[in-house]
Sequence to fold (168 residues):
Amino acid sequence: MTDSDSNDSIRQLTREIGELKRTVADRLSNDPVREKAFDQLYEELRQYKEEFLFQAEKPLLLDLLLFYDSLQWFQESLVKQEMSADVVADSFQYLVDEFLEVLYRRDVLPVERVARFDRKVHKAVKVTPTVEPDADYHIDQVLKRGFKRNDKTLRPEEVVILRYRGSE
Fold:
């Protein structure tokens, strides 16, 4: 056998091995049993995920539904005009308190009220000039209440701050 015959045999074997590899790869990728098993596995994972999310969200959703019931009662009472202005104000405060309770159950708490601006928990949305040097960076007004969860700010408190401009 010559070198040329050996090289031809090697090339022929290499081609046959390549064809075998492609055939095996095609069979593995098109294996209906394997595809069915993966499809079933993906479906089970999807169902587990949906059930897990549902179970995780369910307590919050039930709290929100109770709050919805309170809002419905309040709306019906307003439409029927069964309440005086004082009762309306008290009932509305009850709704605010009830909603805060829903947040408390999720460890969401309002930011503590402080006199001075703190970048970690406040967002200055407006500045009011002051001639009092001691009032510099004091909070003049809270526009939106801030909230925290586990000592992390969920929403900074939007405030108007006083800024000392000197006597102009």
Notes: The mean pLDDT is 88. The radius of gyration is 34 Å.
